[in-house]
Write a structure and sequence with these properties.
alpha+beta; seven-stranded mixed beta sheet; 13 strands
Length: 449
């Protein structure tokens, strides 16, 4: 691979035409029109691609397979130059012309960034660094000769050296499948219009033994409190002595692998970030424990890890006070509203169903019909570890002088229900908490089998 330099305008024009021809002659699958739905003529495609190529070249981010120019790639992000303001303005002006004016350009941009936004936008919101393939094209006469793989592997090598993922989006299902074949993973499909679907893809960096600490820290930064890692390292040292350091390294390896195969859930912008990504930490820790202790041995540690904020809150907050009960109901309602907004952006996240507040009896109810922690546990044979997370809810509510009545979770049923009240509420005394055959705490009316 070479970075294109020292080219004159005529050479750039030829390259632009070669790339534009690759895009314009591409045969989309039957479900997608892709870029051609907005740029239907060869002349417009030439104008559009020429703007991108010129900006990329003059900013030093345009690459070719070799001097023969079999294929081209434009990169952005970590380790790459940024498009200058002047070049960016020239590119926007040319793209407006190619798209047929400002109104059509606005429609194109809105479509491309609809349905949750691009993977680049979401990665930036999550505070993650990345290397992005902005454009990749193999000239028609050189296709199916391994040049696409060669360019992808070049990008992978750059990203691995920087300990960052490679991201890209593409406008065709068949292209998406080729990228997956070459090592990318489909993150999500954005349904931008009826005939425009954007396929967001990501490839996490390969991690060597020497890189694990750095990559792990970068991956989990701001996803959950730093204290989680500190407390787990301390717990491992106390339980396993010097072996605890090696176990922690395995926990980090497990986490990076689990993170890779998990769907994107919004990173730090997810309202349940600590629960989701902290839960992933527990799923990564348990398989690394050499003695595979009974889950009950870890319950106290895990619930203290996650529910310490409830313990502190309990010093001033009491669900037996009607005002406090009404306030926490508002918190639950706000969380439900946020979850319902985010589910369109992160379809694999929590599906939250709120219920009206029972003012007469001071009871708050809501339920999850989809839980990413439960789904991950089922998919990765870790359902026996899930009670560590679910059961902690009972402890958390008790720390603010409340009672949680729950009949099931998404791990041992189809719904995770929350019925929350003060622990002096008359209804609370009619229930007892038992452990089912799978280790989940559930509520049963006293006297029932």
């Amino acid at each position: 691979m070479i970075k294109l330099e020292h080219l004159d305008d005529s050479q750039l024009r030829i390259i632009s035409l070669q790339i534009a021809d690759s895009f314009f002659t591409y045969r989309y699958n039957e479900a997608d029109d892709g870029l051609l739905g907005f740029i239907p003529t060869r002349e417009a495609m030439n104008t559009y691609i020429s703007a991108i190529v010129n900006a990329a070249y003059r900013s030093g981010v345009l690459y070719a397979v070799s001097e023969n120019h079999e294929g081209f790639m434009m990169l952005s992000g970590e380790g790459q130059n940024s498009i200058s303001f002047a070049e960016g303005m020239k590119m926007i002006a040319a793209e407006k012309k190619a798209l047929g004016g400002m109104k059509q350009m606005k429609r194109f941009i809105e479509a491309c960034f609809s349905d949750g936004g691009s993977i680049e936008t979401r990665m930036k919101k999550a505070g993650r660094r990345f290397l992005r393939i902005e454009m990749l094209a193999v000239r028609p006469e050189y296709q199916k000769q391994g040049y696409m793989r060669q360019m992808m592997e070049y990008a992978y090598d750059l990203a691995d050296a920087l300990h960052v993922p490679v991201i890209l989006d593409t406008d065709d299902k068949d292209k998406c499948e080729r990228y997956i074949h070459l090592g990318m993973k489909l993150d999500r499909v954005r349904n931008c219009t009826q005939r425009l679907h954007m396929y967001d893809l990501i490839r996490e960096p390969h991690v060597t033994e020497d890189d694990i600490d750095e990559v792990f820290r970068e991956t989990v930064r701001e996803l959950y409190p730093d204290s989680y890692n500190e407390k787990i390292r301390t717990w491992l040292k106390d339980r396993y002595g010097m072996q605890g350091f090696e176990i922690w390294k395995q926990v980090q390896k497990n986490y990076l692998e689990n993170f890779r195969k998990s769907p994107y859930l919004g990173g730090k912008d997810n309202g349940h970030a600590s629960a989701v990504y902290g839960g992933l930490l527990i799923f990564s820790m348990y398989p690394a424990l050499p003695d595979q202790p009974d889950i009950s041995e870890l319950q106290g540690f895990v619930q203290e890890l996650f529910m310490n904020p409830f313990t502190r809150l309990g010093k001033v907050f009491n669900l037996n006070r009607s005002a406090d009960m009404a306030l926490i109901n508002q918190v639950f309602l706000s969380a439900g509203k946020r979850d319902r907004k985010q589910i369109s952006q992160y379809p694999e996240g929590f599906v939250n169903v709120s219920e009206p507040y029972d003012r007469k009896n001071h009871i708050s109810r809501y339920r999850f019909t989809q839980c990413p922690n439960a789904k991950f546990a089922k998919q990765n044979d870790l359902l026996h570890v899930l009670p560590l997370l679910c059961n902690s809810d009972f402890f958390g509510i008790s720390e603010i002088h409340g009672t949680l009545i729950r009949e099931s979770t998404c791990g041992n049923g189809s719904v995770c229900d929350y019925c929350v009240m003060g622990n002096q509420n008359p209804l609370a005394s009619k229930y007892e908490t038992i452990r089912d055959e799978n280790g989940f705490l559930v509520s049963r009316k006293k006297g029932e089998q």
